Amino acid sequence: MKTRKRTVKRNGTVSRKIELKVVEVTESCFDQPVDSSVYEVIKYSPSALPAKHYDADTTEPISCGLSSMNELLSWNRSEANPFNVAAVPLAPRKPRLVNCLRRTLVSHDMMGGYLDDRFVQGTSSEAPYAFYHWQYIDIFNYFTHQMVTVPPAVWTNAAHKHGVIVLGTFITEWTDGAAVCEAFLKDEESYRAVADKLVQISHYYGFDGWLINIENNLSEGAVKNAPLFLQYLTEQMHERVPSSLILWYDSVIEDGKLKWQNELNQSNRIFFDACDGFFTNYNWTEENLEWMKNYSVVQGRQADVYIGVDVFGRGKVVGGMLETNKALDVIRKHNFSAAIFAPGWVYESQSDKSEFRSNQDKFWALLSDYLYIHRPASQLPFISSFCQGFGKAVYRKGQHETAKSWFNLAAQEIQPLYYHMALEDRGWVRSSGCPEDAWDGGCSLLLDGLIPATLNTPICAKIFSLHVPLDSRIMVTLVYKASAGITVSLQLRTTDSSYCSHTDVHEVTLTSVTPETVGSGPQLESQMSELCGNRDLHGWTVQCSQLELHGCVLREVCVLIHREGEPQDMTFSCRVGEIMVLDVGTLQPPTDPVRGLCIDDVVWLRGAGSSPESSSSCLRLNATLRWDYPVESVRHFRVYWRRLRGPDPRIPPGQLELLARAYSNQFRVTELLVPEPPSVLELLVEPVTRGGSLIPESWWGRRQLSYTQMESSQRNH
């Protein structure tokens, strides 16, 4: 983790103070010519950026919650954090939530929350916590003990990419919580004001609802208004966010006493009746579930009752830790939904955090028999490099783009199935994330195992369950790196879309193609050469195939592992770097350039920054970049800079240097070491499209920044 302390040397003495200058730009610059320049005179004054939304030392944008009722009631869009707005809408999936009769909610309770994940643009981290088994869950709740927990955008983006609903948390606790409730539940005007703010916050930041957790006693008047508050909040959320949910946690009962029931019953049903679901406390027994199953209030809404499971196993509970599957077994036996609380145990319980991936995979494998596998159901293109949102380096086409550990869940791509499966005669195959080598992002998918001598057919390693319509000419690319003695190919399994309910499965054999056989016209041929032109790149094999299907739905993607030579026991490994399924008809170069590149909120800093190797007299630029481009068509943006001229006119312009990847139409440049004034630099933004099209540099977003030092006579005033 990088240090955030900074030493600034000034007038021969060492100080901890930072010299900052902020420039506010309010007018839109999207329509300005790309060759226009922003002019800056460097001054030093305290930063005007709100400390709760930007790191005090680096000005990096950060996520945070609200800790008081005053903060909540005074919240407004103009003072909100634009960087914490989710950039990814909720993706479609099968089955849809309304069709899931036994749902799974995960409640993130991780060491107080807002840790590495608070850095909206990611951060350096050797061993972060991340979640990537999205195919198993329906709902993700970000939980802290702040009064209003706003989920960090990185979590919302990762969950939405997989079709998972995201809930924030509204919590009141203890004596202070009772006073808060007494105030906001005193009358209709007060509770509606709170509900309206919760709706506005959810709608602005792009998440899908709230878990309401009142863990304090309520007066007679307050408890009377609590169901009305819940009902109004639920109605307003449904109106503003159609896919939204409001859930109530099992705590207060109808007489206002804080008395956990560990079940839904007559004492707490008034809250269940007023919202979308009920999250029980954790100390239930099977008798509680047996009784609830026959409770008349539950009939027709059994999926809306989420039985709480504390993974830490605190108190008198069923299961917990690596026996959490015992709790799921009982819950599913009685056909209830499950709420898995604090699965970060798989991380917190490990002294060696490098074992986190294997521990998490083991935990979710134990639960997998009790969980639905949900299928992404988006239209083509379907693309994944298997990046889990963290790694030891960032890779691009099999080579390091940056060579340091990092964490940013916004970079997470559609996740495959992770499992360990036994084969006949001691054979096995395993699927896991591999950060040691990757094609793009932070990790590849490692398939390894043992092919027994008795197995004469290829191993079919299923890596995706999908529901993707195919009704056109399809291009499929597979990038992999295999051990000696095996042959690797790809198999797609489809259904006839008109008979999907009959699960009529067809296996499609892919035929290899060259770029020339696909295209029509030089532009498409050039694009196909970029995708498929180099069949062996940095040790990775790039395999392209095409097929034509009509009225079909892609249901499974499998990697076939063939043993070469004589039958014998053989261990194998195959790193899968990327899979792309593309509609050839849409493989046309984009027609729109990046529109505008605004430079806002400029902060000049003179000091060593967060890098201990830097000189204490370095000049550093911090600034917000904004641009206009359809985010749904890109995997990410690449943000660059280069020096154009100055301070010495004899020095030629500098080379293009990559700053970072961005996952929305804005990016905060932080601590960029720049030449002394007077100088001119250029900032550029390159879209990286989902279909692999190269965007010519002339279509990138760009803006020049010209800056000079303030005259000494001006500094004296």
TrEMBL record:
Cytosolic endo-beta-N-acetylglucosaminidase TIM barrel domain sequence ranges: 114-393
Coiled coil: none
A GO molecular-function descriptor: mannosyl-glycoprotein endo-beta-N-acetylglucosaminidase activity
Residue ranges annotated for the Cytosolic endo-beta-N-acetylglucosaminidase C-terminal domain, each copy included: 588-708
Transmembrane segments: none
EC number: 3.2.1.96
Leader peptide range in chain numbering: none
InterPro entries: ENGase (IPR032979), ENGase_C (IPR057882), TIM_ENGase (IPR005201)
Annotated GO CC locations: cytosol
CDD domains listed in its UniProt record: GH85_ENGase
Catalytic activity: an N(4)-(oligosaccharide-(1->3)-[oligosaccharide-(1->6)]-beta-D-Man-(1->4)-beta-D-GlcNAc-(1->4)-alpha-D-GlcNAc)-L-asparaginyl-[protein] + H2O = an oligosaccharide-(1->3)-[oligosaccharide-(1->6)]-beta-D-Man-(1->4)-D-GlcNAc + N(4)-(N-acetyl-beta-D-glucosaminyl)-L-asparaginyl-[protein]
Keyword Cell inner membrane: no
Protein name per the record: mannosyl-glycoprotein endo-beta-N-acetylglucosaminidase
Compartments, record wording: Cytoplasm, Cytosol
Keyword annotations: Cytoplasm, Glycosidase, Hydrolase
